[in-house]
Amino acid sequence: MADLKERLLRPRPASAVNLRDPSYRPSASGHQHFHGVDVLGLKKRGQGLRSWIRVDAAGNSQVIEVDKFTVMRRCDLPARDLRLLDPLFVYPSTILGREKAIVVNLEQIRCIITADEVLLLNSLDSCVLQYVVELQRRLITAGVGEGWQSEGANLSLRMGNRNFDNMFGNTSPDYLPFEFRALEVALEAACTFLDSQAAELEIEAYPLLDELTSKISTLKLEGVRRLKSRLVALTRRVQKVRDEIEQLMDDDGDMAEMYLTEKKRRMESSPYGDQSGMGYSSAPVSPVSSPPDGRKLERNLSIARSRHDSMRSTESVAESIEELEMLLEAYFVVIDSTLNKLTSLKEYIDDTEDFINIQLDNVRNQLIQFELLLTTATFVVAIFGVVAGIFGMNFAIPMFDYPGAFKWVLVITGMTGVVIFCSFMWFFKYRRVMPL
Q1: Alpha carbon distance 323, 311 (integer Å)
Q2: CA pair distance 278, 252, nearest whole angstrom
Q3: CA–CA distance from 29 to each of 32, 43, 68, 232, 334 (Å)?
Q4: Between these two residues, 306 and 427, which has the higher pLDDT value?
Q5: Which ranges does the record mark as transmembrane (predicted)?
Q6: DSSP string, 205-273
Q7: Are 32 and 113 in contact (CB under 8 A)?
Q8: Contact predicate 52/44, CB 8 Å
Q9: Are 9 and 21 in contact (CB under 8 A)?
Q10: Residue 317 · residue 324 · CB < 8 Å
Q11: How does pLDDT run across 368-386, given as a tens digit for each residue?
Q12: Quick one: which of 323, 372, 34, 63 has its CA closest to 181?
């Protein structure tokens, strides 16, 4: 256990947390899967330790507990990048390419990818565990494929058959560097998770909207309101992932920074460190006297070698950018399809709302027409009240002496009311106020 701790964690300054404290117990499980992970140790108070799942290039996994300063020093990351991985804060989806690591914050997948390992925040979320299992499976499968590749190359050398070069050549996109494989699994997990949520939203939305068009109720309208709020939130998350992938595809410099294996290989193979890779010469030039011929020849050879290595590294970086761009394009199509699916659902909701508004306007117009009819009929009936009020006054009228006078008053008043009502109807039809 002490050897494992020293191999995983580099020495720390005295101001940092003491990893030799008895309370610090990193647990290693090797190839074992994560059954019953202790979530209580995700962030221990007073120690600043977090639980991480470490997966190396061979597919081995273990749970370790380190503080953020150790992670910063190990992966050469600033503190602001680690804040993106803090589960206590909600940050939008982000993919950052740094000098020695890739910081990935995609939905539930929050990890740091280096050229040799993946540090994933420990969690009981099923997406995190599925990410670890899928990454292990692909790494083990890739190791088997590389074994077949080497055997096929040896067999082709023995038999002299060129078909083995096409069969086992290293031109397949499956043979990606470790960091690209880990990034691909993270992109796949995020895209699959968002697409599944979009599918669940579709399954719930379309029947509810169809029922709402047939019968409008307050309960169904409240359900559509909640559904639309969820749709807006999910669309914002999908749009952020899509914009992040598109931004990476548009910037060749960011994609070149993410090629960690190539940068590590150049750094390890270069005898002059980083300066030779940039084309600088380590031999100083004296301003007083010219250097001897031997030193001048050595310096020229060093410059030529540096330029040759720089051109080779530029070509390899261009190839790696093409590989990474193809990888990003594949998942850009997937996330764009999910976004189109959500956009279609939003348009269907908007169409349903427009249809409901048209129905409500139609009902409102019918109510206004009915109210207009009632108002016209009330005006006609009010004529009888006026006539009754006039003849009910206390004064003598000679017409009251005739026995049939009351009948004629009713007939004349009724005919006058019918004529007035028909005149109003004709006016409403002429003005197209209501269909008759």
Answers
A1: 18
A2: 18
A3: 5, 20, 22, 41, 35
A4: 427
A5: 372-396, 408-428
A6: HHHHHHHHHHS--HHHHHHHHHHHHHHHHHHHHHHHHHHHHHHHHH-HHHHHHT-HHHHHHHHHH-TTT
A7: no
A8: no
A9: no
A10: no
A11: 989 999 999 999 889 888 8
A12: 323
Q: Give the DSSP letter string of 321-389.
A: HHHHHHHHHHHHHHHHHHHHHHHHHHHHHHHHHHHHHHHHHHHHHHHHHHHHHHHHHHHHHHHHHHHHH
DSSP annotation string for 6-65:
HHHS----TTS--TTSTT---B--TT---SS---TTSEETTTTEEEEEEEETTS-EEEEE
State the pLDDT at residue 104: 92
pTM of the shown model: 0.66
The closest alpha carbon to 109, from 192, 9, 44, belongs to: 192
pLDDT tens across 91-118, in order?
Answer: 888 898 888 899 999 888 899 999 889 9
Write out the two tokens for 316.
């390899």
Alpha-carbon gap, residue 289 to 159, rounded angstroms: 60
DSSP secondary structure, 286-308, as one string: -SSSPPPHHHHHHHHHHHHHHHH
Quote the DSSP letter at residue 402. Answer: S
